Each structure stands twice: as C-alpha cells, then as structure tokens.
Amino acid sequence: MSVTDFDLTAFQTIAARVDGAVLHLTLNRPESRNAMSLAMVAELRRALTAAEASGAIRVVVLRGAGGHFCAGGDIKDMAAARMKAQTPGEDAVARVSAKFGALCVAYSRTPLATVAVLEGTVMGGGFGLACVADVALAGDSVAFRLPETTLGVVPAQIAPYLVERIGYSQAKRLAVSAARLDAAAALAIGLVHEVHSGDALDTALATVIASILQCAPGAVAQTKRLVAMARLTPAAELVEEAAAVFSRAVQGPEGIEGTTAFLQRRKPNWAPQ
Questions:
Q1: Domain total for the chain?
Q2: 208 CB contacts (<8 Å, ≥6 apart)?
Q3: Do 124 and 165 have their domain in common?
C-alpha cells in the first residue's frame, strides 16, 4: 500500500498532506479551537493506520489550524454521551472516553516517528497527543491547561502520558492544581523539547524532520520499542533482549547498508541524497 492508496481529501475534521516521507496532519476545526470530536478521533486513527501500512511514510507531524493545537474533547459529543448514559446497562460516557484513550495509545505505539507542533491552546486529548509525540515543538504562544478537576472531572485518559512525559511528581502537581503552563514553564519541566517564536516554528520543524530522515526507519521503530520497554523493565532484565535486537539490526539490511555507507563515506540509501 502506498500513500496514494488513501484519499487525503476524504477527511472532514483534519487536513492531510504528504511531503515525501512525511505525513502532515492538521486538526482542522478552528472555529472550536480544534476541539476533538469523535469524528476527528476516527480520522486521526484512520490516517495513522494508512501511514503505517504505506511503507512510504516515516514521519507523522501533528499540528492545529487557526493558531491553536487542540482545546480538548468536543462538548457536544460528551453531552450526547451523557444523555445516552441514562440507558440501563450502557455506559456511553466511558465508551467515548475510551476512544480518546485508544487514540493516544495508537500514536504512542506507532513505529513511525511523530512530531507535534504546539501553538495556542493545548488541553485534554490534545494535551495527551502532545505528551505521546516523540518530539514536541512549541510556539511561544502555547498555553497548556489542565482544568479537569476544576470542573469536577478527571484527566483520566491523559494521566498515564503525563506521568510518562514529566514524571509522577510534576504530573500530580499539575493535576491537583489545575495548572496553566506557558511555553517557558513547559520547556522547564520537559513537557516540550523546544520553544520557538511563531515565525520560526516551520524552520525548526524542517530541521527536526531532516534529522529524523537521516535515521534508518527500521532502527527508529526498534529503538522506540526498546525505549518503551526500558521505562518499565530493570536494565538487568533487558540485557538479553537488547543484545538480540542489536544483533538483528547489525546483521540486517539496514545495519549492513549503514555501516557500508559509513566506510564508503556516503549517505545510506534511506537518507535524502
């Protein structure tokens, strides 16, 4: 399957554009600061699935239209789910919440490299996507908010990714104080990796993409998998697994090509020439 096998114009809530090996996905509901509806969740999942199956996409970029990344879940969807929840034996609210959670899982586990470009409001499901991205670039306009507890609800689906990105102590602090973070504060606690002025974000993104494309796609996928395992597994228990992963990589097509290219003082075949 190639990237041309799925219709990039078929989406209603996101805009999709392919630039070489990069799929750019833009949350495209600017009238609601890109609030994440169930339709948007489904389209983001569909776009990622197609990218993974294409064999041609190596990087997925997420950003928002209209100067904002994402203002959280769509209130209309939540209200409709709450009405359905009155039906005995059916928990429609939990089902909606689980769909948002599954979206974050899909993007956190993808073998493709992911980059989030964060501007304006970042809340709820958008906060979760920001946390699961491999690289998070922020504009100086960014405003992270975690207001759930002020509304009597819980940042349930994004909680694991908050802990993963910034650690238990900081995640607790943000959650219990309904924190607001500007770009500088987000950078200080590791929520984002770089901060740039708005007019410099595209240049910063191009630099990150260029760096990623120098890396072998299979090695990136295996590295992401091993790093994810290392979060929860003691180093001593990973020795044999890491050795096996390294051996397969060195003796595989990418390892042979990469080391040969190094010795021949040329770029490997996966790197832009």
A1: 2
A2: 115, 135, 137
A3: yes
> Full-prediction pTM beyond 0.85?
yes
- Token output for 215: 């890396």
Q: Please list, in sequence order, all residues whose beta carbon lies within 8 angstroms of the beta carbon of residue 43, skipping any fewer than 6 positions away.
A: 11, 12, 13, 14
Strand 59-64 versus strand 194-196 pairing type: unpaired
Nearest to 44 by CA among 68, 20, 21, 69: 69
The whole domain housing 248 covers 217-263
Decide if 7 is inside a domain. Answer: yes
Q: Are residues 45 and 138 in the same domain?
A: yes
230 three-class SS: helix
Strands laid side by side in the 121-123 sheet: 70-71, 121-123, 143-145, 180-182
Digit-coded pLDDT (tens) for 197-233 = 999 999 999 999 999 999 999 999 999 999 999 988 9
| Residue indicated by tokens 């993104």 | 205
Q: Encode pLDDT of 106-149 as tens digits.
A: 999 999 999 999 999 999 889 999 999 999 999 999 999 998 88
Q: Is residue 271 part of a domain?
A: no
